[in-house]
Write a structure and sequence with these properties.
Radius of gyration: 20 Å
Helix content: 25-40%
Oligomer: single chain
CATH architecture of the largest domain: 3-Layer(aba) Sandwich
Number of strands: 14
Structural class: alpha/beta
Largest sheet: 7 strands, mixed
CATH class of the largest domain: Alpha Beta
Order of helices and strands: EHEHEHEHHEHEHEEEEHEEHEHEHH
CATH topology of the largest domain: Rossmann fold
Shape: globular
Strand order of the largest sheet: 3-2-4-5-7-6-12
Strand content: 15-25%
Distance between the termini: 30 Å
Amino acid sequence: MAAPVIDKSERTVATVGSLTLGKALNLGLRTAMEADPKVIVMGEDVGKLGGVFRITDGLQKDFGEHRVLDTPLAESGIIGTAVGLAVRGFRPVCEIQFDGFIFPGFDQIVSQVAKLHARTMGRVKVPLVIRVPFGGGIGAVEHHSESPESYFAHTAGLKVVSCSNAVDAYWMIQQAIQCDDPVLFFEPKRYYHSGFMKAEVDPGATPAPLFASRVLRAGNTATLVAYGPSVKVALDAATAAEEDGHSLEVIDLRSLSPLDLGPVFDSVRRTGRLVVVSEAPSESSITSEIAARVQQECFYSLEAPVLRVTGFDTPYPPAKLEEHFLPDLDRVLDAVDRSLAW
């Protein structure tokens, strides 16, 4: 995938080189820690081990145990401790080791983290980042391949973002850390070390805004919208559709709350068709919200109903069945064909 276009007019540092998404996150965390001594990384095995996916590799060695903390296996305790640090002026970055492990900390996130700023009439800020490896495709056991992002996007007071490539990973993690609001930062775990997500990272470039979607590929036949791990299948579908003479526009949401749907509206007004792709189940989801808002804003431009290609409304299946659960190229192209045939 081509790296997203970024303004390089104010470049001051040489390009780091081609990095995987995982390496870009590591470099982004390192850069944030160097820039601000109040940034603290904490979570299960993030220190000496460097994280189960090695995203925090080398950080404890370079910054010390007082800034990269190996915590007990207690997500509620991790989040609760981070809240205390945040209100005292620190900028903690919590790692939830796997997406399905976040639920023991759910009460802390939705009852405390999301509400403190409003509860104190703006006097208390919670500059807290919660990193969540999410999505399937790694052949893992139960609780290791979830897509819980809709729970948090539904919760007022939380920001929710997801990167889909190395350039965004590098910049977005730093921007999330600098944000004074709590940010849920969802990372597509199956692409941490994949060549698909590799890109040249230029620390001297001007990054795109954190809470903004981006057109990754221009087109005029139909619009594909995706985020996180679903971006790859959307881009693959656009490439495959060229053989049939179709030009599909691909948009990466990047921000799930707040949603930046302006580029989506503009695209749908030109193409008249929209297919939304996500690994999460379709019921009461982010894809539902997108479909509703596009119908509301682009009703007279639509040539077909908004179609969704998602995970099924079932618990995530055993690893040997996950290829049937996850949206794939055939399912996305089938949705495009159905939209075009309407």
